[in-house]
Specification:
CATH superfamily of the largest domain: Winged helix-like DNA-binding domain superfamily/Winged helix DNA-binding domain
Radius of gyration: 18 Å
Order of helices and strands: HHHHHHHH
Helix content: over 70%
Number of helices: 8
CATH topology of the largest domain: Arc Repressor Mutant, subunit A
CATH architecture of the largest domain: Orthogonal Bundle
CATH class of the largest domain: Mainly Alpha
Strand content: under 5%
Number of strands: 0
Distance between the termini: 62 Å
C-alpha cells in the first residue's frame, strides 16, 4: 500500500473510532485529560504499527480496543495508590457495599458503583457491551475468547447484579 493510501486509511480509521476509544478510555481511567492522552497514544501506536506493516489489519476496532486496554493496564500498574483519606478530602465518596436498596431507574453513578460487585473480567465485558456498545463478536475478538464465553459471562453478570440488588 502506498504511503498516501496508508495515511487516508489511518485518517478514516481515526474518524470512525476516535470518539469511541475516548469514551472507553474516559470510562476506564476516570479523568478526561488522561483519556485524551490515552486516546492519542492509542492512535500513535496504531499508526506506528500500521505504517510499518505490510499486512492489513482485519478488525481495526478490535485492534484499537486491544491497544487501549493494554495502555490502561500499563497506566494502572504505574499509578501510585492513593490513601482513602486523601480521596475523601477532595470529595470522593464511597458507596456502602451493604446497601440493600436498588432503584430500577439507576443513574450513571449508581450503575458504575454496581459494576464494582463484579470481578474485573466481567466488569470489562459489561463496559465493552453496554458502554462501548461493542458486539459480542467484537468483544470475543478483543479478549481472545469465544463469543459463547462472552455471552455466558454477560448473562451471569446481569444475574449477579439482579440478585444483589433485588428489592427485599
Amino acid at each position: 500500500m502506498r504511503e498516501i493510501d496508508k495515511k487516508q486509511e489511518f485518517l478514516k480509521c481515526y474518524d470512525l473510532y476516535a470518539e469511541a476509544i475516548f469514551r472507553h478510555a474516559c470510562f476506564r481511567v476516570g479523568r478526561r485529560e488522561d483519556a485524551k492522552d490515552l486516546t492519542q497514544d492509542v492512535f500513535l501506536k496504531y499508526w506506528n504499527y500500521f505504517s510499518n506493516s505490510t499486512e492489513s489489519i482485519k478488525n481495526q476496532k478490535a485492534f484499537l480496543y486491544h491497544i487501549a486496554n493494554n495502555l490502561i493496564i500499563d497506566q494502572w500498574r504505574k499509578k501510585k495508590t492513593e490513601s482513602l483519606d486523601a480521596m475523601t478530602e477532595v470529595g470522593i465518596e464511597f458507596a456502602d457495599p451493604n446497601a440493600s436498596t436498588f432503584e430500577v431507574d439507576l443513574d450513571a453513578k449508581d450503575a458504575l458503583l454496581a459494576l464494582n460487585y463484579l470481578d474485573d473480567f466481567d466488569k470489562d465485558i459489561m463496559v465493552m457491551r453496554y458502554v462501548d456498545d461493542l458486539s459480542v463478536k467484537n468483544i470475543s475478538d478483543l479478549l481472545g475468547v469465544s463469543a459463547n464465553v462472552v455471552s455466558v459471562r454477560i448473562h451471569r453478570a446481569l444475574n449477579t447484579l439482579r440478585i444483589k440488588f433485588a428489592k427485599k
